[in-house]
C-alpha cells in the first residue's frame, strides 16, 4: 500500500502528522497509512500524539464514565499505535496505553526532568520588604523615576504547582513541581481534571510545536466542603484544608480516586515555548509580556485566574493587597497572598534569577489569620522530662484551615505576660500549618462579666503523681515534676517516645496504647453519676436530646487498676496475658441517626458530640463477636466497640507531628464514629437509648499482636536507637549515632568518660554531661535507671551497632541544610551527612562548606550569600552524598532562554 494524497497533504508526512485532529474523520485516515514508510522520528511523533489521545479516551471512558470519542475512532487509533509499536519496537514500553487492560490504571510517579526549571517565588511578609523589592527592580533596570513600570498583580492561590507539557497542541505530560528540576509524572490524574484541555483549542496557526504551561491545582471551597461531607458520611477523617485535600487527590496512584475529587486549575506562568518551523515570526500571536501569555491561554481554553490585574505603580499594588486582604472570603479558593510580576518578558530576562527564584517576581504573604474565641480553661500537661506546660483549652474555632481547640502556653510566665484570664475572649492566630498561638485577651469583652473571669494558678503539685513541682534550677522559667522515676504522665510520654520512629520504631504502640499500659485510670470519673458500665453510644434522632442518665441502683465505680508497665524495664517482658484485663476509660459518644430513603433504607450514624458519660473498654482485646442471627443491637454494639478498639491501638505516635504535641485534641480522640448500614425495611423509630454490651472478653486485637511482635523485633535495634529510647535529656538521634559509633555496646557506654564524650563531634558538653550523669545514676544500688539497663540487657538489647558501610566521602565538610527538601526530612538529610563522615551544622558561618537550600529557606540562604558560602539545590545535594562532589556549581542551570514564571 502506498500513501495517497489527501487534501493535497501526503499521508504520513510531517505536515500530515502535526495537522491530525482528534476527530473521527482523521482517525479513519489512519487506516490508509503505511507505518513502515515512516522515519523513526516521524513514527515517534505520531505515536506520542496518538498515545495521548488514546490515554485521554481511556480515562474518559473508564475513569470519568463519559466517553469523548466514538468506539470506531478509538479502535482506529489503537490499531495504529499497535502497528507503530510492532514496526518500531522502541515505542513499545510498559507505560504505553496499548498495554492498559480494561479500567486498570496506576500512576507510576516516575521522576521527569522539567524542560525548563520550575522556580518557586521568594516570599515577603511586610509592605516594607515588598517596597524594597519593587525599588530594587526599578534600580536594576535603570528605570526612569517617573516612568510607569507595568507589572501583573495576581491573587496567590494556596494550591499545588503543576507543569503541563503540550506538544503540537496535545497534552503529553503533567508534572508536579518536585524540586523544581525534576517533578513526578502524574499525567493520568491530570487527565481527569476537567478544566485542563487534552487538546489546545483556537486557531491552528496559534498552536506551537511545544509549550510548558505552569499553574496551580486547587480545590474550591465549595468542592472542599462537599468532599468533607462525603468523607464524614463514609466514616473517613475530614481533610484539614483545601490545600491538603488537593494534594491528597493529586497524588493518588489510582486516577479513579482523583476523578471523583473536584479539582480546579488556573495557569499563571509559561516555561519553554517553541513555535517550530511551521510558525515563522509574525504568523502567530506574539508573547512578549506576561498578560499576552494569559490571553493566548484563554484562546487555547486554558483557565486563567479572573483576578489578575495590570498595575503601573506601587500604590496600585498596595491597592490590590488591601482589596483582597478585605475580600479574601469572597474568592472561591484559598489564597495566601498577592504575586507581583514584571510584565515585559524581555525585562524579566534582563532581571534573571537567583539560584532558587526569579528576581522579576515576588509573593507578598498576608499576615497570619486571627480569630476570637473563648478561653474555657487552662490545664497543665506533664511532658516527657517532667516539664509542666500550661495548655489553653479553647472553645473550638476554625482558623486558617483547621479547627483549634487547645494550644500550648509554654510556661507560667507566658500566661502572666499575656495577661489572660480564664473566661476571657482571646485572640488566636495561625499562619499556614504553623502551631496556633494564643495572642492575648480582648480587653473590651471583659466589661460587665468580671465575675466570670479567674486567674490561672499554677498547681503546686503534679496533676499526675502529686509530687511537689519546682524549677530544676534556680531562675529556670520552667517548672518540673521531679518524680522522673514513677510519675505516670512522664512514663507515658517516655513510652510514646521510645516507640517513636526516632527510637525503637515500634508500630502500634502509640499514645492510646501507651496510656493503657502505664496509666489505665487516666480519665477515671470522680463520681458514679457519670459512670455507665453498659453503655457504648447514645443514639438520637436529629434534633433530639439524649435522655438524662441515672446510674442503675447499686452501681459502684470499678476498682482501680494497677498499670501493666511501671517502668520501661518491663517493656520486653510484656506478655499477651498481661494485657487481657486492661481497660481504658472512654467517653460515650452521642450519635445522630438519619435515615435516607431510597431503593433500600440507609441509616447513617454520625458522631455529634461527647456525652460526658464514661465507660471502660478492653484496651488490647477485641470484644466478642456475635453471630448474625443475634439481635442487631448487640452486633452494632460490638462494631462500635471495634472502632474504639482500633483507635486505641492504631494511633501511630511515630507519625505525630510537632504541631500535634500541643494540639492533642487532633490525635487522641478516636476518629468520628460513623456507621452506615443498609436494611431492607423501614427501621422502627427508636427512642434515644444506649446499647447493652454482653459480658466477657474476646480475642487479642490484631494490632495488639502486631505491637508485641514489633516490641520483640526492637531487641535487635541499633545501639543509637536504644540510647534515644532511654529518654536521656538533650540526647537526640543525631548525637546518639555519633556516640554509638564510638562506644559500640551499652556496656562500653556505661563507663564512658564525660570529657571524652564532650569531645565527640556533634555531642558537646551539655549532652555529654547529661549522658554521663544518666549512666552514673544507673550505677547506684537499686536505681531505677539501672533496673532498666539490666532488664533491657537481659532481653538482648543494646548489642547491635550499626555498621559503617558508607564511604566517608564528606569527611572534613560542614554542611547546613535549610528549607524543605522534597526527598529528605530534616533528620534524614542530617543523617546522610553524618553517615558519610560530614558534619551537619545548624548555623551558617565562614567554616560552612555548603548550604543546601530547600523550599522556603529563610534567613540562612541570605547569610550564605553574604558569606559567599556555596549553596546547593536538592539535586546537587543528592549528587554530593553519592559522590562527595556536588557537580557544577554555576548558577546558570539549564534555564533556557524562554520566558518563565513561577
Ligand atoms: Zn508527676
TrEMBL record:
E.C. code: 6.5.1.2
Cofactor(s) needed by this chain: Mg(2+); Mn(2+)
Domain BRCT: 805-885
Coiled coil: none
Keywords, ordered alphabetically: DNA damage, DNA repair, DNA replication, Ligase, Magnesium, Manganese, Metal-binding, NAD, Ribonucleoprotein, Ribosomal protein, Zinc
Start and end residues of each stretch annotated as Disordered: 232-252, 632-686, 877-902
Residues at which Zn(2+) binds: 462, 465, 481, 487
Annotated NAD(+) binding sites: 71-75, 120-121, 154, 177, 216, 341, 365
GO molecular function: ligase activity
Record-linked Pfam families: BRCT, DNA_ligase_aden, DNA_ligase_ZBD, HHH_2, OB_DNA_ligase
Ranges of biased composition (kind: Polar residues): 650-665
Active site: 156 (n6-amp-lysine intermediate)
CDD domains named in the record: BRCT_DNA_ligase_like, LIGANc
Record's compositionally biased regions (Low complexity): 666-686
Annotated Gene Ontology cellular component terms: ribosome
Catalysed reaction equations from the record: NAD(+) + (deoxyribonucleotide)n-3'-hydroxyl + 5'-phospho-(deoxyribonucleotide)m = (deoxyribonucleotide)n+m + AMP + beta-nicotinamide D-nucleotide
NCBIfam families referenced in this protein's UniProt entry, alphabetically: dnlj (TIGR00575), PRK07956.1 (NF005932)
Role description: DNA ligase that catalyzes the formation of phosphodiester linkages between 5'-phosphoryl and 3'-hydroxyl groups in double-stranded DNA using NAD as a coenzyme and as the energy source for the reaction. It is essential for DNA replication and repair of damaged DNA.
Family of this protein: Belongs to the NAD-dependent DNA ligase family. LigA subfamily.
Name of the protein described by the UniProt record: DNA ligase
Organism encoding this protein: Bombiscardovia apis
